[in-house]
Amino acid sequence: MIRAIKNRFGASDEVGCFDLSDSGIESVLDPTGLFTSRHAEPVPGTCVTVTLEGRRPLLAEIQALVSQGRENDFGNARRVVSGLDSARTSMTLAVLELRAGIRVGGRDVYAATVGGMKMSEPAADLALALAVASAAKGLALPSDLVAIGEVGLAGEIRKVSGVDRRLQEAFRLGFKRALVPTGSETKIAGMEIVEVSRLDQALKRVKITGE
């Protein structure tokens, strides 16, 4: 992945995806397959989001694994993150437990993006929270669902930029359902778009409940 931040006329904010093969460097016209994985059956602990690289929307899958752990054994719990911002991940886990009742204290949590993608924008918070909750409860999310939204410390889901562009790309690639922040006001024929204002509300929409 090559990012062009600036050219002689100003900011460009463009990104190009390339693959190094036996015949040389080739452009990847549809890079979604690089950052998502297709499962024969829905698997607990996975959730797809849509990130913006410059002006280009890219689908990315977040995977999470939560160990059984020991109750109240907070000191030995591990947090291992790959491809995600570790500070935002820690914050999201705290909100998930304190605001939505998903117990992860004392349990090892592993979270990673598929394909080595680096993702730091807050719009991926909701997908991360859903992936961890799905793993913690052992309940798979719908395979045609994408989740977009920033998670605040009070458990609220905040609006992010470019929701319409993100959802258009998700729909083009076969995703039929989406969870987005309240006030996004995006409508796409053939896609069920559900607006949520709080994290616990989003979890209830995918039939995951806290303790």
Describe this protein's structure.
With 211 residues, this protein is α/β, with parallel strands linked by helices. 23% of the residues lie in helices and 31% in strands. The chain has one domain: Ribosomal Protein S5, domain 2 (2-Layer Sandwich). It contains five helices and 13 strands. The strands form five sheets. A four-stranded mixed sheet has the order 5-6-8-7. A three-stranded parallel sheet has the order 9-12-13, with helices on both faces. It has a two-stranded antiparallel sheet with strand order 1-2. Helix 2 packs across helix 3 (125-137). It is globular and about 50 Å long. The N and C termini lie far apart (41 Å). The model has no long low-confidence stretch (mean pLDDT 87).
Give a nutshell description of this structure.
InterPro entries: Ribosomal_Su5_D2-typ_SF (IPR020568), Ribsml_uS5_D2-typ_fold_subgr (IPR014721). The chain has 211 residues and is an alpha/beta fold.
